[in-house]
Amino acid sequence: MTTWRESLQERVGNGREIHFDSGRFIRENITKSWIQTLWLIILTYLTIAYTISQFRSLPFTTGFVTLVWLVTVGLTIYNELTRSHNPMTLWLKNNLYSSITNTLLSLLLVLGIIAAVWAFIDYAFVRASFSRIPEEAQAILAQFQTPGANWGAVLDNMRNLMVFRYPREQTWRLWFVLVYVGVLLAGSTFVYSQERFRRHWLRQVLTGFWLITPLLTFGLLVGVVPVPGETIALLINLLIVLAGLVVLFFLSRLLLSRFPSLIMSFVVTVLWVAALILSVYRLSNNLTTILNPDIAWGGLLLTLIIAVFAIVASFPLGVLLALGRRSQIRGVPAWLTYGAAAVLAAYYIYNNTLPAFARASSILQQLVALWPLLFLVIAYLFQKYFRGNVVALFCTIYIESIRGVPLITVLFMSIILFPILLPKGMEILSTWRVMVAAALFAAAYLAENVRGGLQAIPKGQYEAADAIGLNTFQKYRLIILPQAIRTVIPAIVGQFIGLFKDTTLIAIVGLVELLGVANLISAQTDWLGVRREPYIFLMIIYFTGSWVMASSSRRLEKRLGVGER
Amino acid sequence: MAELSPTPPKGQQSIPFWRDGRVIGVLAQIAFVILVALGTAWLLRNVNDNIGALGSFRCADGTERFSCGFNFLRIDAQFDISESIIRYDPSDSYGRALVVGALNTLKVTVLGVILATILGTLAGIARLSTNWLVSNLAKWYVDFFRNTPLLLQLFFIYFGVILLFPGIQEAIQPFGLPIFLSQRGINLPGPVFMPSFAIWMAFLILGIIQAQVTWLFLGRQEQQTGRSSNRGLWAVASFLLVAILGWYIAGSTANSQGILLAKAARVREFSDLETLVLGRLPVSELGDIDTAVADGTLSPENLTAASLQICAVKEDSSEVNLTSQLRRAGIPYLVNRSDRLDQATEAFAAGDCEVLVATRAALAAERNVLENAANLSIVPIAETPVRIAVPRIEGLNFVGGIKLTPSFAAILIGLVLYTGAFIAEIVRAGIQSVPKGQTEAARALGLSESQRLRLVVLPQAMRVIIPPLTSQYLNLAKNSSLAIAVGFADLWAISYTTLNQSGRSVQVFMIVMAAYLTLSLTISFLLNWYNRRISLVER
Asked: What's the pTM value of the predicted model, to 2 decimals?
């Protein structure tokens, strides 16, 4: 007497053996634990209920998907029983149908995803209007019971979103900057990545071009032109400045070769900074700007300017802060700290506490009047945690204060407090205030990331650098910082992506960057109340930007071998 | 920098001072201190020049003292705050307004941290699922929310979703649940605690102790016999048993609730109310009311006239107790709310309603005050420790349940979705950091899946998860300041209004910075303590 199993095998098995132990199957997949049984029952109910409800709204698609699901599940089960998978059923078994719950979940999720995607396509394309004329858009949308997307608001305002109120006759500056940076970028990716250009002069030329790019783009975008009539004077001043810089170059080489020491490097650096400031000052007498950044810069242009400035300016500042926080230079000796604290405490006790005690009316006021004693407490903490190192103290206070407050607070502080902190009558544009605030904010976060990288460098590297006689500047430039920064490239790029996204907060502060323009679109009479479509467009822009930055960082990491050594 | 150059032994040439590391270090610090001191002095002089004119640090007696700068906190605020946990009205001081803001920030932060952790953990675990669809859905969620700015998400949720919800009458109810999404925000059913909750709480604590005892006892049995005894199930079951027992005991022994109504209504217990209302309606059963309204035999005005009229005090738990029982029985009712019990009694005496609901003690006291006390009777009403208040449309607003205003809902949902995506990545990285050999060894030892997760994977994963999790919690606390963009009155929004109105920008910024620094330090302190507890004790 053949069992049903054997007869089934004969009819369906096709020559292959069927392996199936029903008892074990039930024990492992259904009744292994009470949670599993419960979850299975709930999931079965949910799947059936959802499939039926979807069948009512999208009959053909749901029917098709369910049919495909049934067929593939059947095929996979058959192949699993006969232990002869083909690639498709093997993938299905491993990824979608690995257990009963997973099978049901797959159907549920596929139907859910199809419903969501269809709803979005319906909103964004089928029921949408792409017309840039408001009346026509209204007419198109009125045809539907629930109107879809009104993309005309975005298409009509594309120039606003990109550059907002940049004067039309000056648009050539934007195109110049775009082409210049594009060519430079393309050239650099080609030259820097190739081995044969390792010591080529082309590399140094490109580096030179990159070094003048900030000044050049800034000058172009803000509309720097010679004061009319003083072009000759400008050229003469330019020649003088260039001559001075060349003289300074040879002088510094001479000094550094005659007196090689840290102090001399410091003096030479100070001379260079002073020379650059003086030359800018001298040239600025003959130059004037024709564009007001507060008015002219807006939209995506402002976002990119602020993001790039903050990223570029925060890098050296952040590295300096990280090095300062970890500095090991010998600190102020204890007798000096406690002495100064004692003197200050005595002075304020004599001047403030004693009169306050006489005036005090409650215990609380007496306690508050004893505040000069805090000087001694501060001195003790200073000696204990910072070993008297003032540089480390200030860097730590700066980093922890900036990291403990929200960015929007820092931005508002810069907008409101800068006029107070600068001498009376000195005006500084909102755009500069926001750019400086963003750079200072980013520097604090970057400092922490770089500090993590510095901590990962083995002490042997420092000792080896000292052993071969490098001074501090060379040691950091050639040995320590390259390794440290390479280790934390993922964190730094994440920081930059965060900064790019955080430029949106500037919309709250009053400057009109990309998000600000998107908010203004819904206030236009033509497109009153159209809010979602500009936001969706912005999400696409930000997502693309962040994605590009993240993937190029991954490529950079792979090229530099981050995490391998 | 490694070792500083040591003093050369006697007889050798000493190091010239411009190359001596110690001298350079000290000189650099002195130069640094002088620079910082000069810079600060210059800044302070500018500040003095610029706001010395405003006199904001000036005291009443003309002297300039630091503490006087904060006297403005006692002035009346004269602006309104849209939502607040404690009582506030515009005649309160600036100081109280700032406290309201700080409490609102705390509310958002605490709720946000809890919900974001749950969402992030689920998404992180989903990311590691073997199901291709589940893991990719989690991946798309994480990628989308990490790569778009938070403020943009907030604007979209607030202006593009919540403010476009329909009006109250057409409130959306997702999946038919009693959750109402409307222009007034999100209204959920919420618990209301009756006086007998204290008794039930005692039972709950007893239940927890009982569950612990069961757990330990069965654990000892497991060790002795070597067979697993499903002790989790038994512990949970014993807790539930005690909790349910406590529920009925607390409910039946409590008799603090009652209603006051005329003896003429002939109501002796709750079921008599049903008869009373049925008598006024042209239907034979309460369940037929809906069909009667639908086919026109019963007009809405007649239904309103026949409904049970109740007088109650605002936000009183007795009202929720009575109305939830009425709702369960299907009896239509209307509520007339007053601010205080004596006002409710006046309304009752004036005839605005037929039933006054409060605790029996309060009702007895009120009945003595009324004129026709002899004609009034107090009917006891059953109570359970917790009643669920379901939002109900009354007039132009929802009443009852948990109300999330549109601004609060927007900032909470935005923060939770955004931070949840980051936490998902952290959890995923943490779980993946545990070497695969640990899982294989656990399986080789015969540990079940849940044992493997609980005893082997999670303790090791937690050590990698906690430090980045700390910074994500800090980010959430700081990002809550974006509430100003969606109109939620958190600390920063109120500080900004205070700053603009009082003009004391320096002082307000000092207060705000101190508050946020305290919040950040508290969160990192708590999490660092937990981190130290679970960190590896190294040799």
From this structure: 0.87
